[in-house]
Structure formats: structure tokens, C-alpha cells
Amino acid sequence: MPNQSRTVAYGRVHNLQIVSVTQLAPEREGYWVIFIHGGAWRDPAVTNNSFDATESILRDTPGLPIAGFASISYRLSAHPNHPQDPISTSPKDFRDAKHPNHIRDVEAALAFLQNTYSFGGRYILVGHSCGATLAFQVVMGAVSNHREQAFSGATENPEISVGVVSASPGPLPPPLTAQPTAIVGVAGIYDLRRLRDSHPDISAYREFIEGAFEADELLWDGVSPAQMAGSRGVEGGWKSGRLAVLAHSKEDELVDESQLEGMEESLRQWEKLEAQIPVQELSHRDRRVRVLPISGAHDEAWERGDQLAYAIIYALEQLREMGLAPQ
Fold it and tell me: Buried-most residue among 76, 118, 120, 303 (CB within 10 A)?
């Protein structure tokens, strides 16, 4: 299959603001598969290249309605096992990102891809681990397009807010022109506070969460896709979405199953609502939430690529069943 592969910069602030792109032969009704890597917002060994094995498997699988692949790198937070000297390290290589740097980079990359390839809503956003967090943050009402607000009281009350909770210098990326039709979260982190509380004896969980989001636990809740309800969560933010797939392995040694359970509960509210799409586009507005068991340890999903590819193929099959992808 003819293709054009390249790695391009979508930002000028940091050398990690790059995206690897493979455009396949024109497929008018095909989907772009766009990957967001994990690594606890900080692992320099986990970048856009972590999608290579999966992409290779998918490209060797005949008959998939895929028009292109993209894998996004983004600015990373500091990692204690990979120290850098701030004096001798170029600012473009120095890893000190704090929220919302990570999500802003993802949104900037998506805007670049939209502007370059004009695929509209025909894309599947795929995230592994904290990449799954970022994928759902893209469509959260309170996080997407930088509308974050602090809140007081119950997280399920979307109307209680007390102003902006975080900001970072620099221009904002343009807002998304079209939301993804499907999101696939693999071994995802969906509730930061619950993740910390599920591993009280392992300090690394608190450390990497604070490394990315500081110590404000209200902020942790405000950016957690499984915590925010109503207009501030995925329920109210992902207006045109059609399919959510949550993939998790019982052999996952790093992210426990309670993350999956909390996100599924949140998405069931989204599933009940009809998708907001132009009347002339489709004959129905149904949505689906699917839980997909996979196998292997946490990082094996992308290291081997087979389980990540399995989840993406499953999502394409679901879109076909819904009449949203060519047979």
C-alpha cells in the first residue's frame, strides 16, 4: 500500500512537540488512527516511537478502513531517574512540563493534523496509560480548549466553580474543529486521586501525579475523566462522539481495575445521550461503550503491539456494526 511517512514539528517551544505521520492511500471513508503515548507524563524513553510495533501490525492487516496513522509526542515532566542540568540543557530539551502543558501539546498536534489532512471527525483517538487520560481530556467539557475551572463541593455538580485553576505562559493552541468519532483507552488512568489511594505504600504514584499536576488534589479531580460529571466531564463535552472502548488486562501490574470501573460508570451516562451530529449525516445517533479484556503486563500492550492493535481493530469492527465505517 503506497504511503508517505514523516515526522514533523507542530510546535516551536520544545523538541518533543513532534508527531509521526503515515498517510496511506486515499481512503475517503477511512479513519485516521491517532495515538497518544503513556509513561506517567514523564518517561523520556516513551515517545511517539512507542506506536511503531502497533502500526506495523495494523498496516499488515488487510481490509482495515484506515486512512492514516499519527503518533504524538508532547512535553514531559521531570523524572527523578533521568535528571537534567538546567544550566547546560537547552530549554528545548529540558523536561519540566506541568499541567496543562501536556494536554495543550496534544490539542496543538490534533489541530495541526486537522489543518494538514482535513479528516474532520473521521479519526479514532487512542491512548495508553496517561495517554488515555489525555485522550479523554481532549473531550472533557472542563479541560478541552482550556476552559478549566476550579470547583468546590461535589464533583457531580458541574455548576459550582470558583475560577480558573491553572494556566501556563505561551499562546493557546487553536480549538479542535472536530471531535473524534471514537476513543480507545488502553490501560488507562482515569481518576488520579483513586490511583494514589489504591497504592498507598508506593510513593512513586504520588510523585508522578504531583510531578505533572502539583499537589492540589482539587485539580487532580478536575482533570480526571472519571471524576467530572455533567457539562464539565466527558458526558457533556464529547458531543459528537459515538464509540468509547476501554481495554484493560487483569495482568496489568501498574494500573488496577478500579480505574476501568470508574471510567465505565462515567461513560454510561454519556452513552445514554444521543450524539449531536447534523441530521443529514446519519440515520441514527446511537452511542456505544465497550469494555475489552486484553492480556499482558502494563507496557506489553504497546511494546509488542499486538494487544494495542487488537483494541484498535475491535473499535473499527464496532464502527462497522454501527454503520459508521465501510465494510
Answer: 76
* Cell numbers describing residue 42: 514523564
Residues 207 and 148: beta-carbon distance below 8 Å: no
Query: Is-catalytic flag, 191?
Result: no
- Side chain identity, residue 42: R
Contact 136, 225 (CB under 8 A): yes
Q: At residue 220, does pLDDT exceed 90?
A: yes
Of the residues 43, 191, 252, 299, only one is catalytic, namely 252
| Range list of H helices, 60-128 | 101-117
Catalytic hit among 77, 129, 166, 249: 129
Domain regions of the chain by residue span: 3-321
Q: Is 79 a catalytic residue?
A: no
Q: Mean per-residue pLDDT for 242-252?
A: 97
pLDDT digits (tens, 9 = 90+) for 40-60: 999 999 999 999 999 999 999
The CATH number that domain 3-321 falls under is 3.40.50.1820
Task: Tell me: pLDDT of 149 over 70.
Answer: no
What are residue 18's DSSP bridge partners? 9
Question: Which of 105, 128, 298, 299 is an active site residue?
Answer: 298
Closest CA to 282 of 245, 324, 313: 324
Q: The whole model's pTM is what?
A: 0.91
Q: Quick one: which of 301, 162, 142 has its CA closest to 225?
A: 142
* Residue 231 among the catalytic residues: no
